[in-house]
Amino acid sequence: MAFRTIGLFARQGDARIMGTVRALREHLLARDIELLPGDAPFFDLFDDGIGDVAESVHDRLDLGVAIGGDGTMLHLARHFSWTRVPLIGVNLGRLGFLTDLSAERMIEEVDEILAGNYYSETRILIAAEIHRAGARIAEGVALNDAVIAKGETGRMIEYSWWVDDEPVGTTRGDGVIVTTPTGSTAYALSAGGPILHPVLPALSVVPICPHTVSHRPIVLDDSSTIRFQVNDLAGAGGHLFLDGLDMALLEDDDTILIRKSEGQSMLVRAASHNHFEALRSKLGWAG
């Protein structure tokens, strides 16, 4: 696939980001690449109107470039999950599992991709719904994870859960994470969850500090529907976070449904990128 029309996506207000944007923009223009938006340096990914922008340009884009940290790529992936626009990321953050092009080697790696030396990975997203008193009150999608978390309390919360209507059990603890393979190296990893290969058709359910230590992470087929019933939030409410964003406040007796989203993201990797090399480097596994 030839990438002839490219969109640059970033967040306003960071001088380091602006310098990287300008350098990449000038390089792409010198290569006769059409850039969107036309006169502006980039799309402000965190502008309230980005959803409308994405809808208006997705059929013209061959490639979207997220410039920033993994949060920037997560934002872009959610907005473009209903399109087939492939995405790459330039990492100006910390770990950078999603934004894997380094700012130092950005030009070389972008040229490698433009020359056709790349591969693509299809990443699943998850869709979450909150139901209260028989009505759906909120919904959203996530590339990394959905997290049911306790509110301002030092006490444990309690939830029961089912997989495809089969009861799994009742757990007390600080909450629970449902993660995609993409998100398995994020919050779920810190909570003791397994690292899943990013293109594996699977979801993982990871309890957060469960009171009963036999409640361990479970890996499920990605066709599974996972249902949680909030039994007791310890009098302090709770939260459902999608990719770290607070989706809604939870109440006792709320039901949360989580399943694979119909949308998906396609990430482009330079041919020189190696998943296990990235793990060794970013997680400090190298000898």
DSSP strand content = 35-45%
- Specify Rg, calculated over alpha carbons: 20 Å
* CATH level-four homologous superfamily name of the largest domain: Probable inorganic polyphosphate/atp-NAD kinase, domain 2
> How many domain regions?
2
CATH topology of the largest domain: Tumour Suppressor Smad4
Percent of residues in helices comes to: 10-25%
Low-confidence stretches: none
Number of strand segments: 18
Instruction: State the order of secondary-structure elements, H for helix, E for strand.
Output: EHEEHEHEEHEEEEEEHEEEEEEH
Overall mean pLDDT: 90
> Could you give the distance between the termini?
38 Å
CATH level 1 class label of the largest domain:
Mainly Beta
Morphology call: elongated
Largest sheet: 12 strands, mixed
CATH level-two architecture of the largest domain: Sandwich
Counting H and I runs of at least 4 residues, what is the number of helices?
6
Strand pairing plus helix content: what structural class?
alpha/beta
Q: Which descriptors would you attach to this protein?
A:
287 residues, alpha/beta, Rossmann fold, Tumour Suppressor Smad4, 2 domains, twelve-stranded mixed beta sheet, six-stranded antiparallel beta sheet, 41% strand, elongated
